[in-house]
Each structure stands twice: as structure tokens, then as C-alpha cells.
Amino acid sequence: MKRIIAMVLVLMMSLCVCAFAETEEKGEGVMTYAEFAAADIETEVTVETYIQDRQSWWQGTARFYTQDMEGGYYLYDMPCTEEEYENSLTVGTKIKVTGFKTEWAGEVEIIDTTWEVLEGVYIAEPVDVTELLGTKELINSQNMLVSFTGLTVEEYIEGEGPFSYGWDGSGTDGSDIYFSASLNGEKYTFVVESDLRGAGTEVYEAVKALELGQVIDMTGYLYWYEGVQPHVINVTVAE
Q1: What is the pLDDT of residues 27-43, one digit of tens each?
Q2: DSSP-based three-state secondary structure for 112
Q3: Range(s) within the chain of domains with CATH label 2.40.50.140
Q4: Which is it for strands 93-104 and 61-67: parallel, antiparallel or unpaired?
Q5: Would you identify the CATH topology of the domain 27-121?
Q6: Is the Cβ–Cβ distance between 182 and 188 less than 8 Å?
Q7: Domain 127-237 is classified in which CATH homologous superfamily?
Q8: Has this prediction a pTM greater than 0.85?
Q9: Between the CA of residue 214 and those of 13, 62, 151, what are the distances in Å?
Q10: Dihedral angle, C-alpha 36, 45, 66, 108, nearest 10 °
Q11: 3-class secondary structure for 199-238?
């Protein structure tokens, strides 16, 4: 009987989360994700979003991967004190952000921001976009937490193995680590950002241990640089 009641409660909570995700109202003057996506580059935008991950604080700014129930937003060099970064701008926190929509090498960002913390908490589940690799539709999930399944590890630089420190091999252990994986014969580039998951973290060391031909699953943020280049936060070798 207790097990049945527990299952009912879990179901009810799941339904509540779904309803919240579908019906969350925006504050006055706040854009929906569709309105943000349609806004011209270099125009002022205001969104309400939830922090999903954070790059390290540096000299009064930090970069944030954020998301609402409709889409993802990358906040570039958002001004904040170190204390605010550590205590206020934590994962799950809801914030209202006003800034300017910009684009760099295909990556849509919000810059020159002001922000305030709002009530509310939300942590997104990754969306599997494996089948969208190589399609125009993939960019619609830009900056969201996503997953990829069943990709095959390939050489990143010919003759140099499955990964590289730095995009061109000029880095050292602790630099951003780049690697390649393929799906249906097409090869894609992935990166573990050292500011996000540096040397010694589980994902960084997992990429260093990859072998050519292994089949892997990944989770990360759908970043763009001259094409899709996800910022990976988890890698597992499929059994």
C-alpha cells in the first residue's frame, strides 16, 4: 500500500512539473524564447531564465549556461561580484536578465547584462538531439542541455589520436580538450571547456582515456562555433 501511495505521489509531482513547464508565465516586458529567437542581433532583450551551469568567475564577470522551459540562453561575461557568483548565482536560480542579443561565430549570446534574482528554481533534463546532428533543426536547441548517444570516437588530428589539448594541439594538460566523434559517417567536434570542467574532473579525465573506435554517450551544452561544437560535461563509454 505504501509503495502504491509513493508511486502516485511521484506521478503527481511529475504532472505538476510538466504543467509548470508548459504554463509558466513571464513577467511584464519579458520575452518568450520564441520572441528572443526572432529578435534582431544587437537589439535589447529581456528574459527570465534559470542558471544551469557556470564558468569560473574572473575579474568581475562570469559566463552562464541558462535555460527556461522553452530554450537556452548563454550569458557572456555577465557582471557580478565573486560573492554574488558564489552565493546568489547558483545552479537552479531564476534570474531576470536584460542585455543585448549578439552573435559570435554562430553562437548567440546575451552581453552587457543587468540582472536580478527572482523566486523559483528549475534544473533542466537533457534533451536527446542525436538524430538532429547534421540537420538545420539542431540549431533550434542552441545553448540547451542536450545529450548524444551512440557516437564513435574518431581521430581529432590525423595521426595524433582521439583528443587534443587546445583546438590545434598547442595546449597542455589543463587546457580545453578537443575530441571528435562520428554518427552515420559524419564527424563532429566536441570540447571540454577547462573553465567549466577542468583537469582532474571526471569528464576531463574520461576524454583523456578515450580510445579510437569506442562508442560513447555524452551530455553537454549545445554551443556553436562555426557550426555545432558542444561543451561537454559528461562522457561514458557504451557497454
Answers
A1: 889 999 999 999 999 99
A2: strand
A3: 27-121, 127-237
A4: unpaired
A5: OB fold (Dihydrolipoamide Acetyltransferase, E2P) (2.40.50)
A6: yes
A7: Nucleic acid-binding proteins (2.40.50.140)
A8: yes
A9: 38, 35, 8
A10: 70
A11: CCCHHHHHHHCCCCCCEEEEEEECCECCCECCEEEEEEEC
